[in-house]
Amino acid sequence: MAERGDRSDRLDSPLEKTGGLFGRRRPSRNGGVDVGKNAEGIARFFGTPRFLVYMTVFCVFWLTWNTLAPENLRFDSYALGFTLLTLMLSLQASYSAPLILLAQNRQTDRDRVAAEQDRQRTERNLADTEFLAREMASLRLALQDVATRDYVRGELRDLLEDLREEIRAERTDDGGTPGAAPGDSSPDRRR
């Protein structure tokens, strides 16, 4: 009884059912997967040319046997419209329809799971794409603030000119020759 209590708390396992035609029923170990796989295999076989050939051969044999065989070996009467054959084909059709429906339900479930996985994958791809777009935009903004080589060279030239002007101004204030370094009176070292 404790096992039943444990199972009722779990949502991923079916409850055991009581009563019914055969008494107490227990959930299958595979969750009905075997029945579904078998039904799907049979339904797939029903849709093959091999099945059509087998059914055609079977019906032709049945009709030929019950028409041309000696009267005492016939088991389905032509006079009654091959009643037994009609019943067998009806029985086969009555079993094949639910098997085909079960196979379609399983395929629908697989399609639903695949569609959900595709939707999740698409959402992840969209999120990744949006993230990459934001990163690229931030890199573009950051690159606008980065100094280019030409900008740095221009700034260095301006600073160099400013320094040269300051040096010239200091020399003229000291009374030396313009363009000569302080303490350097030789004309060869000018610049």
UniProtKB/TrEMBL annotation:
Q: Give positions of region: Disordered.
A: 1-33, 167-191
Instruction: Please tell me whether the keyword Membrane is annotated for this protein.
Output: yes
Asked if the keyword Lipid metabolism belongs to this entry, the reply reads no
Q: Which InterPro entries match?
A: DUF1003
* Basic and acidic residues compositional bias, start-end: 1-15
Q: Which residues cross the membrane?
A: 51-68, 80-102
> Which keywords describe this protein according to UniProt?
Membrane, Transmembrane, Transmembrane helix
**What's this protein's name?**
Putative MEMBRANE PROTEIN
